[in-house]
Amino acid sequence: MLSLFRLEAALNSKIAFHISKSLPYFQKGYLCGGNKMVGNDKWRPKFRAVSVQACSAEVTGVDANVEVKSQVHAHASSSSGGAELGTERAGPNDSKSASSTDKHSISLLVGASLFRFIKGKWGSMQAKIEEETGAKLIFPSSRTEESLIIEGTSDSVGRASEIIQLRIDEIVKSSALDYSHFISLPLAIHPQLVDKLINFRNSVLGIKDADSSEVCGSSSNSGSIEVFASKSKTPTLSELGIDQSIFINPKTLHLTVLMLKLWNTERVNAAVKIFKGIEAEVADALGGRPVSIKLNGLACMKGSFEKARVLYAPVEVVGGEDRLLHACKIITDAFVKGGLVLERDANHTLKLHATVMNVIQRKRRNDTRKFDPNNHFDARGIMERYGSEEWGEYVIPEIHLSQRFVYNENGYYHCCSSLPLPKNTQLD
Fold it and tell me: What ranges does the record give for the region Disordered, renumbered to this chain (predicted)?
């Protein structure tokens, strides 16, 4: 079992910490999304430096089930003579005490993706925290580092850490911090399906005799859509709200099971451990039989085809969807129990679908995450031609823990871990 904080001495003293249950972050040294992170939230302690002692200390006794939270190691040191982190330890028999004005440092494992929220625009949030607490925040120069240093008196360090914890709690629950990973059922592993989607995109965009690389580099949005019936005036793609950016990259086609925010390596490692731990249970839920799906036609996610935002291919699970949905629930429940799922995602009803067009991907000059009611497209012409399209039947060989915005050599999302699904034994 990991300890909540491992306190390292500098020079002649060591900080002892008082633990209480009033702040929603330090759980066995893990930084999590406060009371909106679902799972084993046994307790949520905070730390406050209350004394300086010559002896070493290590806080233990935290429930091992909390290990899946995002870890915040607080390596602390104190010095009365300006000593820095990592200096030589004092001898065990040195009983010299230090005052509350001594300089202390702690290292918090937060996550590189969260640093920008703690710094704020033009460093405004960092400056505000430092001004209010008197502590100094030191961010790593390397983009791969995930820890920041807080320096100051024991009281100022404690106050600064509390403010940072509350700030991150707010960000994690909001849309400001994007989902970093998700559980996926890969479909892009089937070349014939990828080819069909490329042809679909080319047809809608009016691109002829172009290979996939040429399509990917195209930004045309002024051509006429071919899938409309003949009219006196055929609307342009721009008038229909259609451009290439709203098409899903065929090489990333998948079914989504669960979205996750894993903002540092500790959370990713915890997710991999959970994922691997349910392999046998998932296989049992599928009854040892392979999973095959059919994609038929197109449908609109909410709204009308005239003002569509998401267009997808409905999924039909061969032999009934109960087995697959049961396996997906086992996965979701495991991550919820592990505390890695936001509350709103834990209560989400799963609807398996293969998205082919989504306006959220639309490239705009002013990138914004705010909902735009005018960001839609007219899909009526597309439905006239592809509304009854049979995309085919495909076997799903495995389930992935996928990382968003990172891709492998084949163009699909980077796989952090995978669970093999039963194969068709009749082919053996």
Answer: 73-101
